[in-house]
Amino acid sequence: MDNQDKKKEKKYYTVNKLSLTIRSAVAIYLLYTVWQLREAPFTSEGTERIIFIIAIAVFFIIALAIGIPSVKALIKGEYAENNPPEPEEDEDDSEGGVS
Question: Domain residues of the chain, as ranges?
């Protein structure tokens, strides 16, 4: 019976839609930056070349790490609504008795 009760419970998410949208926008901007830097390693030499390669790799990884979960949550609707639910009172608290 515990499994059925868990399935019936509503999930409450702590992240709202605006936050997920901003995260997605940041991920898109990082991918845009990677795209703009794609030719930099070929035109640079020495240490600059290594720094550009590292920057491209880091920006790409961060964009994927931020973007994929955010877009997935937006598509599935896994975000908090604007009006958070009222907290439920426990039966013990509503009796007014002293424990």
Answer: 13-79
